[in-house]
Amino acid sequence: xxxxxxxxxxxxxxxxxxxxxxxxxxxxxxxxxxxxxxxxxxxxxxxxxxxxxxxxxxxxxxxxxxxxxxxxxxxxxxxxxxxxxxxxxxxxxxxxxxxxxxxxxxxxxxxxxxxxxxxxxxxxxxxxxxxxxxxxxxxxxxxxxxxxxxxxxxxxxxxxxxxxxxxxxxxxxxxxxxxxxxxxxxxxxxxxxxxxxxxxxxxxxxxxxxxxxxxxxxxxxxxxxxxxxxxxxxxxxxxxxxxxxxxxxxxxxxxxxxxxxxxxxxxxxxxxxxxxxxxxxxxxxxxxxxx
Length: 291
Known about the structure:
Strand content: 15-25%
Mean pLDDT: 93
Strand order of the largest sheet: 1-2-4-3-5-6-7-8
Largest sheet: 8 strands, mixed
Number of strands: 8
Distance between the termini: 35 Å
Oligomer: single chain
Number of domains: 1
CATH topology: Rossmann fold
CATH architecture: 3-Layer(aba) Sandwich
């Protein structure tokens, strides 16, 4: 279906109706450059267990992209304040809990929402600060190559980050690339950007409970990177969970494996936590059951 963003931009979305009685509604907030189809298996899994799930593509991505990204206007703030906020408004229903499952940038987007109070809880995978200093040495070198050499060359040639040329995912709007590259210079991402001081106050206003899961083999967002970013949710009851993928029998997780089929035990943990929220948005004594 198509859901208009707050400024009217058409967003491609898919709704997976709950099987049987509806427990709650879940929105999947994707990672940067990852189309919503990547989350289909998780959405079907949750729908089969009584959750109505909505996935969508941010403007410039997947079913929400224009004919060309050259000259296209859109950035991270648009993705949250205009796009995700509209999905929240279109999904929320009085008396039905509304929950967010985030992946990487999805954990950033929650705190940027003007209507975050409508969300009763978030379970996020692979969210981190993005600073290369949190990464292992080899990954750090790859990321610095992307920011300092590959990214500038690709954006100069195409007018957007032609990420698909590197096999890294969907192409990225120029505005998103510029913000991403700039904020990744800072250990605490945009919290360290003086021009984004108001953002910290928005994150401080979040009171919904949050679980933040990061695999120890996630080279882009290891647990230390998560902790640096999630500290911005300073008034929310949040807890970080480190997953040793090998010990948990999950094989390799990395930054993208959270939503691949072998990670189903992580999905079960997320839904078990959602099931256990006694009073969405107010219960600080939450627990998660994970492998």
